[in-house]
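Cross-posted from the bioinformatics board.
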Amino acid sequence: MKSLKVILNGLVTENPTFVLLLGMCPTLGTTSSAINGMSMGLATTFVLICSNVVISLIKNLVPDKVRIPAYVVVIAAFVSVLQMCMEAYVPAIYETLGLFIPLIVVNCIVLGRAEAFAAKNNAWYSALDGVGIGLGFTFALTLLGAIRELLGTGKVFSMTVFSENYGALVFVLAPGAFIALGYLIAIVNKIRKA
Amino acid sequence: MVYLLIIVSAVLVNNIVLSQFLGICPFLGVSKKIDTALGMSAAVTFVLTLATIITYLLQKHVLEAFGIQYLQTLVFILVIAALVQLVEIILKKVSPSLYQALGVFLPLITTNCCILGVAILVADGTYKLPEGMEPNLLAGVVFAIATAIGFGLALVLFAGIREQLRFSNIPKGLEGTPIALIVAGLLAMAFMGFSGVV
Amino acid sequence: MKGDKNMKLESNFKNMVLVLTIISLIAAGVLGAVYTVTEEPIAIAKAEKQQAAIQQVLNGFDRLEDETVNGLLVHKAYQGDAFVGAAVESETNGFGGKIKIMVGFDKEGNIIDYAILQQAETPGLGTKMVDWFKTDKNNQNIKGKNPEKNKLTVTKDGGEVDAITAATISSRAFLAAVNLAYNAYAANSGAPAVNVVSGATQHIATDSVASAVADTVQVPTDSINALNE
C-alpha cells in the first residue's frame, strides 16, 4: 500500500514540474514536440531511479559533510552511462536532446530527490520514488510537448490533427515554451484547488 | 571585430536564458528584485568565466590527452562545485564587501545549468562562432563572458518587469509562477527581434 | 528512518577524503567499463549513419573511394571503373550552430539528393531544411540542379532558390554548404590528378573557381556511358 502511495506522490501530489516547479530548463528546452519531451522525461527517469537506489544503499557509508559531493558524483556517473548508451543505441534521440542530456546532472529534481527521499529511505521505496517522480516529470514534459506541437504545427506525435498552415509557429519557438507552460501551470493549479 | 560578433550573438541573438533555455531556475527564482538580480548576475559572470577557462584547459590537456573524454560530465561538475567553494573561501578572506554582495548566491550557482552547459559547449567547441573561425581559448572566454552578460541582462530586465508587476491587477488564476512565465515568454518574443542581426 | 544519525560514518577528515575518493574511483571505473562496451556500437552507429546518407544521395554504384578535398570529405562513387558521381560532406555555420550535410552529385555535377547529417536550427523553421529543398514546390527544389549553371542562393540574394519561410539565415547557410560541396566535388571528381589549391573555398563567392574547375572535370566523365540520369 505504501508502495503505491510513494509512486502516486511523485506523479500527482509532488509532481516535479507542476507542483515543485523544479527542472525548468529541460522542461522548456526539450518540449518542442511530444516525442522529444517524452524522451527527455524517460532519460531523466532512468537517472532518477538509478541514483536514488545507489544513494539509499550508500547513505550510511557517506559522512554527512561530504554527502552532497558524493551524491553528485553518483548522479554524474549515471548521467554519463546514459549518455554513452544513448549515443550507441538511439543516436537520433541523443542528437535531438543534445546538451540537455549531460545537464541532467544539474537538474535540481535528481539531487533534490536524493537529498529529500533516498537519503532517508530504503532502496525499494527509493526506487519507487524514482519511478513516481520520473513518470510525473515524463508526463508533464510529454503533455507540454504535445500542446506545443499541436498549437505550433497541428500535429501530435507527428500525426496531423489539422493543417500546419493554421498552426501558430510561435509555440514551437522559445516564447511559446514559456507561455504554454505558464498557462498549463495555471490550469493545473485550478484543477488541484477544485 | 569577430569577438564583437561573438558578444552580440551571445548577449542578444542567442540569449542563454530566453532562447537557449539554460539557467531558468535562477531566472525564475532570484528575479523578484533588481538588487538581487544584479548580485546573481555578477556572481554568475565571475564563476562562469573561471569555470570555462579551467574546464577548457582540463579538457584539452587532461581528458583529451589521455583519451578519457567520457569522464567529462563527472570531472566538470566536480570542478565547478570545488571552484564555487574555493571562490567563496577566497572572497571571504580577500574582499569581505564583495563576499557580502555575492556570498548568498554562490551556493546556488553549482546547480545553475548555464555554468555546466557553457563549460561543455566551449570544451567541445560546439558553440556558435562567426563563419570560418576555429574555436580556441580566447573565443571560448569571450563567449563565456558574453553569455554571462546575456544572462544578467535577461535577469535584470525580468526583475524590473516583475517589480512593476506587483502593482498590476493580475487574474487570480495566473498569480505567481504562471504570470512570471508568460512575462518571460513576452520577453523572449522581444529578444526574437534580434535574430538575423548577426 | 530509524534514527540513523549514529550509524553514519563520522565526518572526520580521513573518512571524508576516503569516501569521496572511493566513490569517485568506482564511478570512474564503471564509466570506463561502459565506455569500452559502448565504444564499438557508437562507432558503428556513426558509420551506419554516414553509409545511409551516402546510399540516399547517390544511386547506382558498387565501390567508394574517399578523398579529402579543400578540407571536405568526398566519397567518390564508381561502378566498375566508371566514375558515376560523388557524395560530399560539407558544413557551414547555420542559425543555431553547425550545419553538416551530405550532397550527392552525378558525374555531370547535377545534384542527385542531399541529407542533413547534423543541424541545430530552430525547430519548425530552420529544421525544415531536412526536406524543404527537395520538395517540388515553387523554386524550392534543388535536386537535379547544377551549382555551376544554376545560381544556388536564395532569391533574396539574387539566386534562384526559394528560402525556407522565415528562416533565410538557415537557408543561406544550407545553400552555402551545397556550393562548398560542389567546389570540393569539382576540384576532385574522379580525376584525382586535378587538384585545386585550397583556401578559396570558405566563401560562397567562389562560384567562378568552381565553374573553372568544373570544366576540367568534364573530361573523364564524357567518355563514360551515361549510367544514370
